[in-house]
Amino acid sequence: MKKSDFYYDLPPELIAQTPLEQRSNSKLLVLSKQNGEIKHDAFFNILNYLKAGDCLVLNNTRVLPARLYGTRTDTGAVVEFVLLKQRGELLWECIAGPGKKAKTGNSFKFSDKLSATVTDVLEDGNRILKFECSGEFYSVLDEVGQMPLPPYIKEKLKDKERYQTVYSKELGSAAAPTAGLHFTDEILEKLKENGVNVAFVTLHVGLGTFRPVKVEEITEHKMHSEHYFVSNESAELINKTKKNGGRVVCVGTTSCRTIESVANLYGEIKECSGDTDIFIYPGYNFKCMDALITNFHLPESTLIMLVSAFSWYENTMRAYKEAVDEKYRFFSFGDAMFIE
């Protein structure tokens, strides 16, 4: 298939710029992959679509406030850095802009507690920063850093926690697993009371999730790699669900990519960790996932390709057109789909 097959017209005003006051008040488009039937609902009614014996798979990664603005100590130039990956003790690989003002040996001050020096410039232009910190690094980062919001969000986020899921735990992401932003503690408790199991996996989302597909032939696209971890407890819960005939319901494409990566490697879900660059597009044979909760994704993105692989291409593109017609809110702070 071609990249252009996944294009759809989206009026800019439908790109959600801020989260709703109540997480669960977003709209919910319910799509049947079997017959293509579409229903419109509210997310707080997700309880009506999940059954006792189902297993909800949630990505419990936590977003780092990874965007930092540093002042160069010799010239006063301001450079933006986004932390990508930890390379050692207080050593981080970062994106820098403008890069010409962040050369090897340049030092930057971010606050009275945090400074850094560029120790290397990589082939792809990323920088290696060696930080100096007076205090616990992540606590200082939480004070100084900003959320690395996607480029299509222009509004400033008033509350950092609104770009975190209520169950976020494992620090390491540069972007939120946004399908989970709709859940509240109350909804999760009610699901458990109704006999729905909850399994947590971890996939640290990289900024590569926003990288556009640049080739027209989608099979030529090179996916970015992201680190994941699955605990023994979660593996046993997912395997038990499959054995007992329940549905494995992934919350977000990141949870989907995690368990499908593991299922492809081992034929089942087991305790493990690693890096995955799995690229799921139409024609893919799903090994584990039975249903998906997800947001509405960018045109021509790898994420809409994943959704199309699961719910079938024609169903997906028709559902997206209806969502536009019904003025759903799109992307990270937007509304949700449930595909079963």
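the 2nd protein, sequnce then structure:
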Amino acid sequence: MKDFYKIIKRPVITEKSNLQKEKNNQVTFEVWSDANKIEIKNAVENLFNVKVVKVNIISVLGKKKRLGRFEGKRPDWKKAIVTLAEGNRIDFFEGM
């Protein structure tokens, strides 16, 4: 079994993810690129003590960036949209 802290890298906090959180009870995470849906589900359930209903995975391609004549690329990453069961909630900014 993989370490749960290596599977879940960080939460993705954007306007769209906040709307999904309020409207559909979905939370978005940046995850390890080799993780699958079952590993992500187990990691979220064990780290946050919630019940996960569904996991959707999106592979995001890194953008090409350029500085003068030098061209580079940001790294590819994987995003997981986790749907929580009714009544479960994950708060990232509780004390603010």
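Residues 37-48 form the longest helix (12 residues). The chain has one domain: 4-79.
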